Amino acid sequence: MFDRVEAFYRPESVPEVLRLLQRSKGQARMVAGGTDLVVEGDRSVRFLIDLTRAGLTYIRSRDTTCVIGATTTLADLEESTAIHALAGGLLSRAAAACGSVQNRNLATLGGNLAHGSPAADMATPLLALDASVVVADGEGRHKMPLAEYFGRAWQNGASHALLIEVRVPMPPQNGRCGWSFQKFGRTEVDLSLVNAAAGLQLDARGRVKWARLALGAVAAAPFRALPVESLMAGREFDHSLLAEAGEEVMREVQPIADLRASEEFRRELSRVVAGRALEECAARAGCSL
Ligand SMILES: Cc1cc2nc3c(=O)[nH]c(=O)nc-3n(C[C@H](O)[C@H](O)[C@H](O)COP(=O)(O)OP(=O)(O)OC[C@H]3O[C@@H](n4cnc5c(N)ncnc54)[C@H](O)[C@@H]3O)c2cc1C
Predict the structure, then answer these.
(1) Which domains does the chain carry?
(2) How far is the CA of 35 from the centre of ligand 1 (A)?
């Protein structure tokens, strides 16, 4: 499928990657695990730049931030103790839901975010955690919120800028907090028809102090459902709040119809999946309905 490829480069540093990108004048593709790129089978590619030796495989947990290098595999995220300790293991649980073991051993976090799929399973938990990314191009390094990366980089062709790392601010540890990742696909190893990641803090009387909800596969890019979050803040977590939140979710989503599901099914499913995520958060925060 890469029958026009003239060279396969294995740079050992970020500056080397950037030099190769510049030299190839848009005719190169970066490759990490290759699990999306190979399926895509773009026959116009002339140069491939393998990122796996460029020094971007790391997980660094600091006081206020956890920093994850772009070529860290989903299997690494699934197993890392630092990632297990972050937001009740939200990112480990999402990583564990990405395809088969074989897939997760190759697939990288950077590839998942840079590929531009609205169904990328790592996108929603990272949005819920207020993550930002660092990218590099010929003009230097830039840090931006993940939501901006989805809006900006994907529009201009994400592969032209190197995604260096993802930075996750440590979420609040105090109080009754819970986090959840939920995914619905046709099979255990299939892409999401809908996915949702949520976080919730409850006060001593069971009222929502703050809520976070991100949805995937139901719009052009994964997004934070901010109206749902505002609607929930300060309210008692009960069945009626959950029903209201579900109605708002259905208003927020803009699903497409494709071979996997109809628009109507995805819209209804987004209510169900978001509801499950919020309910699991509340249960983890000590409030079972
Ligand atoms: C059988 C199968 C099952 C799958 N199941 C799931 C699933 O359940 N959930 C899910 O979310 N995904 C799934 N995927 C998709 C895929 O495995 C993931 O998106 C994976 O994380 C992609 O990472 P990669 O390293 O393989 O990316 P690659 O294929 O190497 O690259 C993907 C794209 O990103 C670009 N890229 C890669 N790294 C960078 C970087 N650091 N900076 C800039 N651009 C970069 C590449 O140029 C390419 O355009 C599945 C794929 C297969 C084949």
Answers:
(1) 7-50 (3.30.43), 59-169 (3.30.465.10), 176-284 (3.30.390.50)
(2) 5
